[in-house]
UniProtKB/TrEMBL annotation:
PANTHER family: PUTATIVE PHOSPHOTRANSFERASE, TRNA 2'-PHOSPHOTRANSFERASE 1. It is an enzyme of class 2 (transferase). GO terms for biological process: tRNA processing; tRNA splicing, via endonucleolytic cleavage and ligation. InterPro entries: Ptrans_KptA/Tpt1, RNA_2'-PTrans_C, RNA_2'-PTrans_KptA, RNA_2'-PTrans_N. It comes from Chloroflexus aurantiacus (strain ATCC 29366 / DSM 635 / J-10-fl). Keywords: Acyltransferase, NAD, Transferase. It comes from the Bacteria. Removes the 2'-phosphate from RNA via an intermediate in which the phosphate is ADP-ribosylated by NAD followed by a presumed transesterification to release the RNA and generate ADP-ribose 1''-2''-cyclic phosphate (APPR>P). May function as an ADP-ribosylase. This is Probable RNA 2'-phosphotransferase. Its EC number is 2.7.1.-. Belongs to the KptA/TPT1 family. NCBIfam families: PRK00819.1-4.
Length: 181
């Protein structure tokens, strides 16, 4: 499968597995899982030809490992990024001393005031390295990388999770834990 086709299917999966399964008549369980057979049926019915083999290739080769199959291979879900209120059953984890958040310059004033908020998603997304954060920030405009004092947050009782694909998640980051460039 060509790179372009992989990306197209990945974007489609992000939409239906994180945000809007109802758009293709799909349902997710409370932990975010979709039945693979049902996903394929719904996709095909909505004009996106999709096979099990293609899904396997997307899961295996996705640049950010955005999706995972269940152990028995019968279900699939997104590893993070949901706006739907699914419970990924993540266990709290101890983050490294600092994490990074990439955002756009135009959001900085508001972040200084309110801290980092999850917006439409369930969690604020944080990266372990600055390069990844920069790429995330570039999606929104002229990028800025913020340093988040994660260890200080856990000491203060804030809880962190790490998704199956290595994205750090937390409900919010108060401004006092953020270092601005
Ligand atoms: C900003 C992609 C104003 C926040 C990425 C961000 C990530 C505020 C935007 C994942 C704010 C939300 C998530 C405040 C936060 N005032 N703006 N108080 N608090 N913001 O897309 O982190 O490719 O929902 O800085 O790689 O950019 O889809 O979050 O700029 O891991 O797999 O509000 O999405 O992953 O934007 O990206 P988003 P994000 P995928």
């Amino acid at each position: 499968m060509k790179q372009r086709e992989l990306i197209r299917i990945s974007k489609f999966l992000s939409l239906v597995l994180r945000h809007r399964p109802e758009q293709i008549g799909l349902s997710l369980d409370q932990h975010g899982w979709a039945e693979v057979d049902e996903l394929i049926r719904c996709a095909n019915r909505h004009g996106l030809p999709l096979s099990r083999a293609q899904l396997e290739q997307v899961v295996a080769e996705n640049d950010k490992q955005r999706f995972a199959f269940s152990a028995d291979g019968r279900r699939i879900r997104a590893n993070q990024g949901h706006s739907l209120p699914v419970d990924l059953q993540l266990t709290p984890a101890q983050p490294p001393p600092v994490l990074y958040h990439g955002t756009a310059e135009r959001f900085v004033e508001s972040i200084k005031r309110d801290g980092l908020l999850p917006g439409k998603r369930q969690y604020v997304h944080l990266s372990q390295d600055e390069t990844t954060a920069l790429t995330v920030g570039q999606r929104h405009g002229r990028p800025v990388v913020l340093t988040v004092h994660a260890a200080a947050m856990t000491a203060a009782g804030y809880v962190f999770y790490v998704s199956a694909n290595g994205v750090w998640l937390t409900k919010q980051v108060p401004a006092r834990f953020i270092e601005f460039p």
